[in-house]
Design goal:
The complex is a heterodimer of chains A (556) and B (262).
Chain A lengths: L13 H13 L1 H9 L2 E2 L7 H20 L8 E3 L11 E3 H11 L4 H28 L8 H22 L5 H16 L4 H9 L8 H31 L17 E2 H26 L5 H4 L18 H9 L3 E2 L2 E2 L1 E6 L2 E6 H29 L15 H20 L2 H7 L4 H40 L1 E8 L5 E6 L3 H8 L19 H14 L2 E2 L4 H9 L12 E2 L1
Antiparallel strand pairs in A: 1-4, 2-3, 5-6, 7-8, 9-10, 11-12
Helix pairs in contact in A: 3-5, 3-10, 4-5, 5-6, 5-10, 6-9, 6-13, 7-8, 7-13, 12-13, 12-14, 14-16
Chain B lengths: L1 H5 L6 H24 L10 H14 L1 H4 L16 H10 L21 H12 L19 H11 L1 H4 L6 E2 L5 E2 L7 H10 L14 H16 L13 H25 L3
Antiparallel strand pairs in B: 1-2
Helix pairs in contact in B: 3-6, 5-6, 5-9, 7-10, 9-10
The chains are: A mainly alpha (556), B mainly alpha (262).
Chain lengths: 556, 262
Amino acid sequence: MSTTTETPFQAKTSTGRITDFVDQRVGGSGILREFGRKVFPDHWSFMFGEVALYSFVILLLSGTFLTFFFDPSMAETHYAGPYVPLKGVEMSVAYDSTLRISFEVRGGLFMRQVHHWSALLFVASVSVHMLRVFFTGAFRKPRELNWVVGGVLLILSLAAGFTGYSLPDDLLSGNGLRIIDGVVKAVPIVGTYISFFLFGGEFPGTAIIGRLYMMHIMLVPALILLMVAIHLFMVVVHKHTQYPGPGRNDRNVVGYPLGPVYAAKAGGFFFIVFGVIAFISAFFQINPVWNYGPYDPSPVSAGTQPDWYIGFVDGALRLMPGWLFNIPMEWNIPLPWGTNTLSFNVLGPALIPAGIIFMLLFTYPWIERWVTRDDREHHVLDRPRNAPTRTAIGVAGFIFYCVMWAAASSDLIATHFEVSLNDVTYWLRALFFIGPILGFIVTKRVALALQRKDREIALHGRETGRIVRLPHGEFQEIHAQLDDYKRYKLVGYESPVPEEGIPNENGIVTRKEKLRGKLSGFFFEDRVAPATPAELEAGHHHEAVEAGDDDKAITH
Amino acid sequence: MKALSQKRRHPLAALALLVLGLMLTGGLYAVVTTVNEAKADTTTYTAQQVEEGEKLFVANCATCHGLGASGTDAGPSLAGVGAAAVDFQVGTGRMPMQMQGPQAKQKPKQFTTEQTHEMAAYVATLGDGPALPEEQYLDGGGDAAVGGELFRVNCAMCHNAAAAGGALTRGKFAPPLAGVSESHIYSAMVTGPQNMPVFNDANISPDGKRDIITFLKTIENQGAPGGAKLGSLGPVSEGLFLWTAVLGVIIGFTIWLTSRTS
């Protein structure tokens, strides 16, 4: 395959000679040998990162097409295009050119829809990918920093989405921009200044679209590309994680080499993703800006929502009461230079929930690492049920997010389910606090129950449903034993035990260590120990004698 | 003139001035308000129509609106609501009301057009109110672009920019406007049914209303150039579609791609 230096290699065909010429100068075969043998484990849940990458490539391609025709100017013009319900209407050049892309540029509407659908898919696949990484514990050593890079990518994808959403300068996105303006202005003292700098004067001004455009087509995509490069580089350095299974451990990767099958699959998958996006872009309308009309600060449309990924912030704003038990959430604070307003009813919901989510997201690997004092490398993933507390924390965060997400569509929930908008808001306010707690408890119990079921099956086999009557009259159900491969999956996991705080060299348990001890209890107090080889042995011997569940395995 | 100036210190002069002032402001007020009022009923109904209408009213509406339509605790007085209100409420099936609630819901209509007109004729005799809209404003021949602007400024905050409807407080709502007849759109604007405000002729001129109707009918009939509309509900339905259908298909493909090897 590769050339050797000892025997001069002479290719027979001209293609071979050209290839050899290039290879001797760029060392392609060496790269291919290194990367082509890179082993990737196969599992459907490992492919969301690829979906994200591919939709980003599609975004770059379709976005480049759109820049050929889009004009990010806020100069005023009158529409003279073919769309009758807007004829002669005063609008910005940005909106006018968006309409031109939609109705006059050949394939323009299709490309706009490709761009928008793939943007939604991009953020969605980034999110699902992150959820997969979290719930399988793939963020553990050595991948903590790559998890952080992933978090930065999520934030950047939100930034890319929002800056792009506002570009057409239509009524819907303008309403969204007005909310951003409100949030910025709610920042005490400097808020009004920042708003004026951002918009080049009072909202909406004539500068914002051009500024967002520059961020959207240059700054943010460049940062995303940089982060993607770092992200993939680290994947190569760390190698891919794998699900637990026989013969898989933290020192190997069981899977298929990149070349040729996996590369072909991954390459083909790009076209599948492209195909799916092209299909929905052809048949499903997205962001019909002509319906919304040009932006004008006076009208606000009912049912105004941001794209899904900003929805949770909008929802938090909708949930926040302006007054709480007769206490206003807005205060005038006298300061030496005059009175400043602290508008907590806007600032709080806009920053605090998102702040909590991203703070926990970025620090979680270190929190778990500190609690477990686990400094080993982990390349074998956890099944979510085998880390009940982590899974429960993840679900609690997910529910916290989803409650706010749902709140962003509170008006549509009200009209479509014929309930009162006020009641929807009250229920969601309650769920905002109760939902994550309930989700935590339920998830943890479900995970523990699944672990017990696994243990039961590992020890006693699967119920076959065949009832046998023994000679002395006793009825018994026959249990089928699992094969070793399947049983390994059920018993081959770690179940850490809670540990007390450890005294330091002076024999004192510091306050920090006490806290760690408590957290360790919180994480691992409720545990189901994997079946030990001795238990398995014992289980096999009296498999016919089915006693009730032996709960002694569950320590508490 | 001289007599007037001599009498100006008369004890009753202040009173006379007050009366004069009141008369003037009162008169001006009357003129101003009638200018703002929607055009009063000029349609003539036959006596027979009014009579038939009264019978229908007593049989179907008086339980709540009271005999003589003077109103009860269960329903308001209908004096002065005009024929247009009857045409809208009864013609869209909202009246007779299915049940008391935050808002009368639309349901299959209970009366023929003829019966509806008879009831309208009866209610119109109770007091001046908006008449049935004139045909010239319902032809859909107005300026859709002007109508669109008027719609976005006056209507979109409740009915949504694409007229897909929206939620109001406490179970009230603004309905979607697709499929509503031209005449009913016009009547709704001049009578303000349910929780809708009245848009009288000073607020939006009859020609403006014609433009709005033209706009609504244009967007209703033009179809969606980009494909299936997903309910015209904006980013929520788009996001829902992506997270369910699109991601579902993608996951299906990932499972297919990774299933072969194992």
